[in-house]
Amino acid sequence: MSGFDLSPLLKLLLVGALLGGLPLLWLWRRQRGVAFGSRAWLHGLALLTLFLTFDLVVFGAFTRLSDSGLGCPDWPGCYGHASPLGAKEQIHVAQTAQPTGPVTHGKAWVEMVHRYLASAVGFLILLLAVFSWRGRAKFQLPRAAPWWATATLVWVLVQGAFGALTVTMKLFPAIVTLHLLFGLGLLVLLAAQAQLYAPKQVVLSSGLRRGLIVAWLLTLAQVALGGWVSTNYAVLACSDFPSCRAGDWWPATDFSAGFTLWRHLGVGADGDWLPFEALTAIHLSHRIGALVLTLALLALIWRLAVAGQGRWSRRLGLVLALQIATGLSNVVLDWPIAAALMHTGGAALLLSLLSVLLMRTKQ
To answer: Helices marked H in the chain — which ranges?
Structure first.
């Protein structure tokens, strides 16, 4: 069975609301006496949602890396059920036919937990939008606050649509990569809202702020390249470092095939198998991007330290070191899942840190 089956949608949304209600209860207990819809409450909700969205991005990476993306081959449920429990028989049949195939009991649970977490995040983002509109006059919220929250709500709905297409289009690389980028975009939007409700300012020169913007754009481009490497399973196309493989720094490449965006997984635009040279081109592009971004970030870190922003300099330096270490580990240790997850988490953290710093700066 494949495609859309909306019959379990209501149950899935209910599970998401229940899961989202648990951290919401924790927030309510932590902020007793703080009025719903006030700046302080919305700031707490934005931070909570930001944290859970970060977890969702990392768990989404685990879903992809554990080959669980098609653990339930329909959407939004699993063989028309709200959980793998109801689809036990169908999963058993698929697993018996292909014991190491895309559908197994374990992979089905990983995929559905990812959907449950996504529903919970969507529920919290909906509350963020509702309470920001309701409290804009009563609590004198920033004028832009409800619009940021509304944009985030629209964004998460589009993200959900890409999640559905990821399944129904059988891990189509362009869709999977966009799904990852939209997930990281949610982090940026939520980080901006958290700053909006509790503004802090960092004074930077106009030149340093321009450098920060360049670093943010380069990070976004490198994250997109990293997503393209991962979704095309090109991580081990180069198995050595600093050379690509067997001492060869620049083996045969096919950039045209590698960066043909609209094609199915593992095949070219002509329907033939994607040549290994295409995977090599994808991997080498990511390495070149990593070198450019590392140099840009080192320059930014140094400039921030000179400008008296040692705390931000250290934060960015630590995350950059994590990214370099985990990126190298992916290659030389044969792509261990722990290093791959930390690499995804580090990319999300780096983009979030740069976004917060950008929101806090003024010329």
So the answer is: 9-30, 39-65, 88-97, 105-138, 145-168, 173-197, 206-231, 255-258, 276-306, 310-332, 337-360
